[in-house]
Every structure is written in structure tokens, then in C-alpha cells.
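User: For a benchmark we're assembling, each entry needs the component sequences followed by a predicted structure for the full assembly. Here are entry 17's components. Please fill in the structure.
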Amino acid sequence: MKCFGVLFHTILTSVVCIPFGLLSGTACGADDPAQVEKKPDNLNLKSEISNLKSQNSDPKTLSSDPKSASSAEAAMALALLGSLTPEHMKQLGQMLEQDWKDRPEWGDMAIAILKGENMRLGMGWWKPTAKRYEWDWIAGRFDSDKDSKVSREEFQSMLASVPGRVPSDQEKPKNNGATDDSTRESPPKGKPLTYELMFDRLDRDLSGDLSVADFDWSDQRAMSPAAMQARMTEMLFYRLDTDSNGRVTTEELAEFFVRSDREALGFLTPEDFRTGFDDPESRRPAATGQKGPSSAQMIQMFLTGQLGTFEAGPGLGDVAPDFTLPTHDGSTSISLSASRGKRPVVLIFGSFT
Amino acid sequence: MFARYRDQVDFYAVYIREAHPTDGWSMESNDRVGIKIEQPKTNEQRTLAASQCCQSLKLSMPLLVDAIDDRVNRLYSGFPDRLYLIDRDGRVAYKGGRGPFGYKPRELEQTMVLMLLNETPSEKTAVDEVTKKHGSDK
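Assistant: Structure for entry 17:
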């Protein structure tokens, strides 16, 4: 039923005009989320409603909405949302979920928020990864004995039968990249990527076989002992990587050594290791009453774009839309299309904060 | 990962809106390490933030700065962070989930390894041949 979508949209478009902070404090981690639910009665709705018009021009609003709500509708929706209890929100969420079938991705998110779901992978628009090579493909390609596992031998023999660019391990060249003829400016260049190394990159839990678990990143599967071990080792890595750039350098290792060798003996004992890796932060009791943001706060963050963009981005198999952007040092501009037909591209979106 | 694959794959970091600016959803973990950035309002401000980021994290891959109207962010739904792998034909081969929960570089690396194995242009047809043969004798 379309009317739900329309009603809902009305609510959304009006709520987005509420100035930040009206629904209590600033977003996530505000002091007392519980307060929010009680507050609506105290809101000065009249003055807020009279503000609505002027704030409709806020660039953060859902500008894609062609029929922006009339102020009467908006006022109604605002009053409605102000008086919604968590139970009402949940109910509205369930109704929308049932009757708003062909909804966009942001609709999933709105429903999840109304239903009061916790933020995690799989909630709302936090969809799982979409990728070209799922386990079925991998098994079909490499699992020659059909035992639902791909051993190192299976992997290598399947690949060895194909003439490829990747050197097999036997013929691993002796020139460890030292005399590389590539003219591309190349910083530290490690050993060439062999099948052996490639297998290691695929074998997520280091079990020695590739299995469906290695390619399941949904966070739903219980971790194997090997995977838990791997996770712990990773955490030690992050403690060593003091500038958090994903690379541990000899300097950082030396720094760790000096820091841990508290008696300056010139060597480390197991005890030194333990204290060196100790993180006082991890033992700090969680701040009291931190329940995470309330539904009302979540809606606020959702509508102001703090949880993600309303656009969904290109899907798996779609042509990636072209763009041209300058580099940070202004030295050049790069177009995605420049790589087309030549090399694959990895795009990493993010910010410093 | 960049160092490992840069000979075969183009890597671009795209600097988009701040996820946790001081004037928005601020984060204690940022304060602790002294990262304090207001949401940029001009291209220049964003470029400055990107440069700080690049310097501080010693990034070596090309860092592109999204325009202040967030056009590439919107095009790709990149906020707050997200990963894509695009094949030689310009099609999406890996679309990571929205960050922070969907941000899984190691998962992308798996797809990239398989892609390099399977889609090296010179051997592509050979691989297809083998796959076909393999598929038919089951």
C-alpha cells in the first residue's frame, strides 16, 4: 500500500527540519537517551512548527522529494512523531515492512530504526557484501575431489594447468624483485605473488584448507579456534601499529621493545610482553547508562545523513559510474574511466574521522 | 595491500565527508589521539583535511578529494566508509557493505586475488577452457 510510504515520507520530510538537538542532545552517546522518550511533551511544538518553513531550505533535507509536505501536513507529522512511543514506532515499522514492498534501500533502514533494531551488519541498510566469487564458484573451480574443501594441492594443481602470469613456487625467481625492469615508480616491492601466497590470502582462518567459512564475512558464523587465534594475533598487530596506518614498521617494533623493556635489560621476558601489550583502556568500565542512541536519535542521525547516504550506489555487476576528482595535493586529476580496459580498480571511501 | 597489488591494480582512496567531525557526531576516540576536524564547507577545507590525513597516516596511494557537494560520495554511497573493486571492463566485482560494519578489506582482497587469477587477460580464455572441461566431467 502506497499510502504508508507517503505518510512515512511526510513524517520524514518534516522531522528532518527539526533542528539538531531538539530531540535531545547531540546524536549518539548523548548523556541520557532515556530522557528523549519522555521529552516530547515539553517540546515547544508551536514555535518549532513555525520554524518549519524557513528550515525547509536546509540542504540536508531529502531534496529528492518532489512533493514537499505542506506545512499543515508537516505540523501533523511532527506532532505525531513527537508523541510516538517506542511501541508505536515499532508498530509503524512493522506496518511499513509488511506493506511497503518495493521500497528503496533507505526504506529498509528507516524501518529497522523504527523497529528499534541494534546497529550491526545486517540491520537496515547495512547489507552484506556483494561479490563476484562466492564459495559455490570457488568450489566449482578448485574442489576437484568434491569434499567441500579446497586443499593447497588442489588449488595449485588447478592453477598450474593454466599457463598464467603468476610464477609457480618451484620456478620462483631468484631475483627477489631487486632488478625489476618495471619503470613504474615502485616503493618497497616484496616478493612476487605466488600461488602459495595467494592461497594464504584466501585462507582466512589459516586452517590449511579453503572452505565456505573462509568466505563468509557475515559475522554470523561461530569462529573456529584457528579464526579466534587469528583475531587475537590481529589485535596484537593493532597495538603495535601505533599510528594506526595498517603497517607496522621496524620503528614501531623498536618503540614497542623499548616501551616493554621497562628495566632496560636489553631483552624481553613473557611478562614484559604481557605488560607491553596491556591496554588500560580495555579495563575501563563502560560509562554508566550508555544504552546507545534511542530510536528518535537514530531517526535524527539517519535524516541528517550521519548514518549513510540515501543513495545506494552501483550494484554488483553494474557499470561503475565514472568520475573525475583532483588528488589532495592538487598535482593532477584522476578519472575512473582511465583504468577501463587496462587494470582493475579498488576504491576506498572514507575520511580521517 | 596497496604495496602487494599495486603492480596489477589501481588503488584510489576517495576522501569524503567527515564521519565524526567535532561539530557533528563527535567521537571520544578521535579526541584522544588529537584528531579534531570540523565538517569542511569548502573544497579547500576538505583538501586540507585530506592532506592532514594523508600525512598523519603516511598514505602512499593516490588520495582523491570529493567535491564539497559530495557528488562522488552520493554516486557510490561511500559514507562513512566503503570498498569497491571494479574489474577491467568497468563493472563492479565487489561491493562492500556500508561502513563501519561492512568495511572488510580482507574480504575485498580475497575477491581481488580470485579476480587476478581468473581474469588475467592473456589467460582468460585458457582458464575458461579448463573450467569448462572441469565442469563437464563431473
